[in-house]
Amino acid sequence: MGKKLKVELVFGATYSVAFLFLLVWIFAAAFFYVNPLGSCKHKLRYWRGHSLISIKKDDFSIEEVNEVIKEDPLKFQLRRLVRDEDRIQIESTGFSCLHSQISEVCVSERPLVIDNQTINVPSSQLQLKKYLKPYGEVSAHYLVSPVQIVAGEQFNSSLACHVTHHVPAVVFSSGGFAGNLYHELSEIIIPLFITTRDFRSQVKFVITDFNPKWLKKYSRILNSLSGYDAINPAENGTVHCFPGGVIGLKYYGLMALNSTDLPGGYSMVDFRKFLRESYSLKYENVFQIKRERPVLLLISRKNSRVFLNELEMVALMEEIGFEVVLVRPSGMSNLAKFARVVNTCSVMVGAHGAGLTNEVFLPSGAVMVQVVLLGLEWGSTAYYGGPASDMGVQYLEYKIEPEESTLLKKFGRDHPIITDPDSIGAKGYNAFRTAYIDGQNVNVNLTRFRETLVQAMELVDLDL
């Protein structure tokens, strides 16, 4: 009896310790927004005093987790955005700007007093007056209004807070190349995801170049990243005060995430998972779609890069065995609705253009077929082909011959537009755009194109 009781006591104590450890483990996972079981693959970084600690499976301890939990949550979240020299700067002044060749982001642990386009940072340790355009792509900055950041002697101490907020601000522009799906996702939405995901909705968006249509279009994404209404700083002369914040967004380039950088080390896989959650998309992988015939989505264009024999293309696709959904630009206007349509498709086909950005909603294992027009080889790969592989989408190209382009009839076979696209590009972007982007349509050679479609069918058949 005594032996049995001893065993039960030991078992009970062991169970209690294990249960307590599990609770701490789960709390740590929620705090850092990662899966603790994957910690051997994903380094979890946090601040302790003045040092940056990497937690791996073999050095993770309850004491370290408890110490992190005691940290100031706001300071912790903001400091996760900086490293190296920027970390030293924010430790000493409470403010730091991160510079790269393609973007600039400022992080403030100090309070922010936002008066229209001016962001005041009350600090005696900081002397600052600078302008920043809170938008990723530098080539679009001529379309973006600057914000002014002032501190020290430049700070307007007479400002009174009309509204005091208790979560940090993230200031960014909805201007730039907004209106084009590719640029909106690449230069605003992905950087916004990278910058704010770790705040777990406890952040408020202060949006310059405020565009209500843009907000409506991306309301599901914005609501997933912030639990609060977006703020137009130019509205009603209201002065908004925040405990800290981020000015600008972390931007890495064309449809790019950086899985090795702070704060969260997010990948395209993480971003696509976020989109599926935000838009309630049903299919993660193409093999989950149960249809008699795989669905092929054909992106139709109306102004340039038009498929002149579109109906014949549809007939060929159906002959091969696809169920074809032909979508025109008007059918893509409701992003939430169209995302669900794309998510049910096994194959998407289109010419170079913003419509192909919808590949981001395809289930993994689906096939994206891009019809590559004359002169657009580099852009086709950089904008859509490369990102497709990061998304887990299989990518095929159909490169047209000069005979399939309307440029041949217009300029003749020996014209540099046909024989030497690089020489046209050397004349500048406007000359290149006029020739290849705005001035070209295509009559697809159905015999050649059949081979690509058959290959697409074989790829999805392997996954079905």
TrEMBL record:
UniProt key word Ion transport: no
Membrane topology: Single-pass type II membrane protein
Record field: transmembrane: 12-34
This protein's GO CC annotations: Golgi membrane
Subcellular location: Golgi apparatus membrane
GO molecular function, one term: pentosyltransferase activity
A Pfam family this chain is assigned to: Glyco_transf_61
Protein name: Glycosyltransferase 61 catalytic domain-containing protein
Natural source organism: Acer yangbiense
